[in-house]
Amino acid sequence: MKKSLIFCVCLLLLGSCKTKENSKSNGSDENFTNNNKLREIRGKVVDVKGKSIAFVAVKLYLDENDCMNAYTDDEGNFDFKVGELRIKDQSHFEAVYKGYAINFLSLRNFEENKPIVLSKKGELVSVTDYRVFYESIKSCSR
User: Fold this and answer.
1) CA 122/CA 96 separation, integer angstroms
2) CB contact at 8 A, 99 and 129
3) Are the CB atoms for 39 and 87 separated by under 8 Å?
4) Which superfamily is assigned to 38-139 in CATH?
5) pTM of the model
6) What does the mean pLDDT of the chain come to?
7) Where do the domains of the chain lie?
8) pLDDT tens digits, one per residue of 72-113
9) Is the Cα dihedral 86, 89, 90, 92 positive or negative?
10) d(CA 91, CA 138)
11) Residue 31 predicted with pLDDT over 50
Protein backbone atom coordinates (compact mmCIF):
# COMPACT_ATOMS: atom_id res chain seq x y z
CA MET A 1 0.00 0.00 0.00
CA LYS A 2 2.78 2.39 0.97
CA LYS A 3 4.68 1.71 -2.30
CA SER A 4 1.61 2.33 -4.46
CA LEU A 5 0.89 5.59 -2.62
CA ILE A 6 4.46 6.81 -3.21
CA PHE A 7 4.21 5.74 -6.86
CA CYS A 8 0.97 7.73 -7.32
CA VAL A 9 2.46 10.82 -5.68
CA CYS A 10 5.53 10.61 -7.96
CA LEU A 11 3.30 10.35 -11.04
CA LEU A 12 1.27 13.32 -9.87
CA LEU A 13 4.40 15.43 -9.32
CA LEU A 14 5.88 14.39 -12.64
CA GLY A 15 2.65 15.28 -14.46
CA SER A 16 2.42 18.68 -12.79
CA CYS A 17 6.04 19.52 -13.69
CA LYS A 18 5.41 18.70 -17.37
CA THR A 19 2.26 20.84 -17.40
CA LYS A 20 4.14 23.76 -15.84
CA GLU A 21 6.97 23.42 -18.43
CA ASN A 22 4.48 23.44 -21.33
CA SER A 23 2.66 26.51 -20.03
CA LYS A 24 5.96 28.39 -19.66
CA SER A 25 7.13 27.58 -23.17
CA ASN A 26 3.75 28.46 -24.68
CA GLY A 27 3.74 31.83 -22.95
CA SER A 28 7.15 32.80 -24.24
CA ASP A 29 6.26 31.69 -27.79
CA GLU A 30 3.14 33.84 -27.66
CA ASN A 31 5.15 36.87 -26.58
CA PHE A 32 7.68 36.31 -29.35
CA THR A 33 4.94 35.90 -31.94
CA ASN A 34 3.12 39.01 -30.77
CA ASN A 35 6.30 41.10 -30.88
CA ASN A 36 7.44 39.70 -34.23
CA LYS A 37 4.37 40.16 -36.41
CA LEU A 38 4.64 38.98 -39.99
CA ARG A 39 4.75 41.64 -42.64
CA GLU A 40 3.68 40.64 -46.12
CA ILE A 41 5.64 42.42 -48.83
CA ARG A 42 4.16 42.11 -52.32
CA GLY A 43 5.64 43.53 -55.46
CA LYS A 44 5.80 43.34 -59.21
CA VAL A 45 8.70 43.52 -61.64
CA VAL A 46 8.22 45.14 -65.05
CA ASP A 47 10.34 46.46 -67.92
CA VAL A 48 10.47 50.17 -68.86
CA LYS A 49 7.36 49.74 -71.04
CA GLY A 50 5.40 48.33 -68.09
CA LYS A 51 5.38 44.74 -69.35
CA SER A 52 5.57 42.12 -66.57
CA ILE A 53 8.73 40.02 -66.40
CA ALA A 54 8.44 36.39 -65.28
CA PHE A 55 11.18 34.40 -63.50
CA VAL A 56 13.04 37.40 -62.09
CA ALA A 57 15.20 36.35 -59.14
CA VAL A 58 14.47 38.71 -56.24
CA LYS A 59 16.69 38.71 -53.16
CA LEU A 60 15.65 40.61 -50.05
CA TYR A 61 18.70 41.47 -47.96
CA LEU A 62 17.47 41.95 -44.40
CA ASP A 63 21.00 42.57 -43.10
CA GLU A 64 24.49 41.36 -43.99
CA ASN A 65 23.81 37.85 -42.64
CA ASP A 66 20.11 37.40 -43.35
CA CYS A 67 18.31 37.20 -46.68
CA MET A 68 15.15 35.85 -48.29
CA ASN A 69 14.42 34.78 -51.87
CA ALA A 70 11.51 34.97 -54.27
CA TYR A 71 10.96 34.45 -57.97
CA THR A 72 8.37 36.33 -59.99
CA ASP A 73 5.42 34.43 -61.41
CA ASP A 74 4.10 34.65 -64.98
CA GLU A 75 2.62 38.08 -64.22
CA GLY A 76 5.80 39.46 -62.62
CA ASN A 77 4.50 39.24 -59.05
CA PHE A 78 6.50 38.21 -55.98
CA ASP A 79 5.89 38.21 -52.24
CA PHE A 80 7.71 37.83 -48.95
CA LYS A 81 6.39 37.12 -45.47
CA VAL A 82 8.93 38.39 -42.99
CA GLY A 83 8.91 39.05 -39.25
CA GLU A 84 9.00 42.77 -38.46
CA LEU A 85 11.99 42.28 -36.14
CA ARG A 86 14.12 40.97 -39.03
CA ILE A 87 13.68 44.17 -41.07
CA LYS A 88 16.50 46.69 -40.62
CA ASP A 89 17.26 50.18 -41.97
CA GLN A 90 19.67 48.73 -44.53
CA SER A 91 17.20 46.10 -45.84
CA HIS A 92 16.96 46.18 -49.63
CA PHE A 93 15.96 44.24 -52.75
CA GLU A 94 18.15 43.00 -55.57
CA ALA A 95 16.22 42.05 -58.71
CA VAL A 96 18.14 40.13 -61.39
CA TYR A 97 17.08 38.93 -64.83
CA LYS A 98 19.07 38.04 -67.94
CA GLY A 99 19.40 40.86 -70.47
CA TYR A 100 18.61 43.61 -67.92
CA ALA A 101 20.69 45.66 -65.51
CA ILE A 102 20.54 44.65 -61.83
CA ASN A 103 18.10 46.76 -59.83
CA PHE A 104 18.84 47.55 -56.17
CA LEU A 105 16.02 49.14 -54.21
CA SER A 106 15.90 50.04 -50.52
CA LEU A 107 12.97 48.53 -48.65
CA ARG A 108 12.33 52.00 -47.20
CA ASN A 109 11.81 53.36 -50.74
CA PHE A 110 9.72 50.41 -51.89
CA GLU A 111 6.03 51.06 -52.44
CA GLU A 112 3.80 48.04 -53.06
CA ASN A 113 1.68 49.87 -55.63
CA LYS A 114 4.78 50.90 -57.65
CA PRO A 115 6.55 48.12 -59.56
CA ILE A 116 10.28 47.51 -59.62
CA VAL A 117 11.41 48.51 -63.11
CA LEU A 118 14.24 46.68 -64.85
CA SER A 119 16.11 48.59 -67.50
CA LYS A 120 18.50 47.70 -70.31
CA LYS A 121 20.70 50.68 -69.43
CA GLY A 122 24.01 49.93 -67.78
CA GLU A 123 25.79 46.61 -67.38
CA LEU A 124 23.42 43.85 -68.49
CA VAL A 125 23.23 40.49 -66.74
CA SER A 126 24.39 37.56 -68.86
CA VAL A 127 22.48 34.27 -68.98
CA THR A 128 25.25 32.60 -66.98
CA ASP A 129 25.31 35.31 -64.30
CA TYR A 130 21.52 35.15 -64.05
CA ARG A 131 21.56 31.36 -63.57
CA VAL A 132 24.29 31.60 -60.94
CA PHE A 133 22.35 34.27 -59.02
CA TYR A 134 19.04 32.36 -59.45
CA GLU A 135 20.57 29.24 -57.90
CA SER A 136 22.61 31.03 -55.23
CA ILE A 137 19.63 32.75 -53.61
CA LYS A 138 18.02 29.38 -52.90
CA SER A 139 20.27 29.28 -49.83
CA CYS A 140 18.35 32.27 -48.43
CA SER A 141 15.26 31.53 -46.39
CA ARG A 142 11.83 31.65 -47.94
Assistant:
1) 13
2) no
3) yes
4) Carboxypeptidase-like, regulatory domain (2.60.40.1120)
5) 0.73
6) 84
7) 1-35, 38-139
8) 999 999 999 999 889 999 999 999 999 999 999 999 999 988
9) positive
10) 18
11) no
